[in-house]
């Protein structure tokens, strides 16, 4: 399961006076606001285009003003955007265009894939948008190909929107560059941190697409598609061997595929080639993964799995077409614990069918599983997903609501009969408290800190951030509750 949450990240230009400039800027709003992920998608065209530069602004402390100044020297900007970040991104695009009127700007990502015409009309500074995978469409334009001849793009011509036919999905993933080479060239890996991964870490993909049909998941329904395509195991092993040389100080590699281990034979084959490298790595996983596959992963250096449990209610799992059961989730978690694999569990509150009772069931289920760490998100219905169509059709979208506030904190924009949005938001706060303030969870954290000095320092920092976020979230819940109470009519 992929949480489609992004942080402010630009892709910057190639050296001054070069023929083409490849740049991106986009927002990644993390549920916890303390994770910084890699701009993997933009690393591919950056690697395909000679003279390009990948600029990831926030973690590298490059301000919006500095980005505008950088863009003055370049001809072409590629900006990765998202639904919550789009308003800020178009303000940036306008400012860049004002500073450099001749620059060409392309927006990419799920939001413009789903709403190309709306995006173009909202921001005339956008010259075109790339729908779905954009590796070759952006490079074609940079190399001088006319817009009318580039598959998969949309643009305005004489006030009318032109949608070129879709580009074919990339099938030969081995033909794409290794993103780790681009990271080494343009990024500082010490700027990236995710609390449940060892620091520093490096993230990359070994596959694209996801055959699962989860109704809420953004990426397979918009950008990467459902067809599952894989890099050869030899190509992945080559990149990992090279990455080990490039980043001797990196503690962990993370395979950020939508579903890394969905095909047993391929996973076992890849593990056999990773094992001699002696790497520590982590990945995403579905609960349908069997014990034999998990064992091969553990023996090859796998440390942690990010697992989308989503809900502890069987009917909600059916409603969202998860393709998994609570029983299977229990067995999978037992298998991971038996093998010594750490699990970071993802849960979502506010999915179709949610009630106060199902929320309690999910909290109880999470405590029963007792995985190392959790993430609790509120359900977000992104345009282009089946969930969006469902909640829009049934009137479950809160009028005028936003997905995040100005500080990047999650807001609830869905509610159901008997379950107001504020109750869902309050339940997220309660979920974290009930999970992490249990004696068992507290003891586990203290034990880690006691036996590992480096981990103790890291845990202290994370605890400070967690408590700061908890305070902000609690304040937000109280504000919403106050506003709701004031809005209620006074009874005679």
TrEMBL record:
SUPFAM superfamilies: Radical SAM enzymes (SSF102114). Keywords: Iron, Iron-sulfur, Metal-binding, S-adenosyl-L-methionine. SMART domains: Elp3. Residues 196-420 form the Radical SAM core domain. One of its GO terms (molecular function) is metal ion binding. The keyword Acetylation does not apply. Coiled coil: none annotated. GO terms for cellular component: cytosol. InterPro entries: BchE-like, Cobalamin-bd, Elp3/MiaA/NifB-like_rSAM, Hopanoid_synth-assoc_rSAM_HpnJ, Methyltransferase_Class_B, rSAM, rSAM_horseshoe, rSAM_sf. It holds the Pfam family Radical_SAM. Its cofactor is [4Fe-4S] cluster. Transmembrane segments: none annotated. NCBIfam families: HpnJ. This is Fe-S protein, radical SAM family. It comes from Candidatus Sulfotelmatobacter kueseliae.
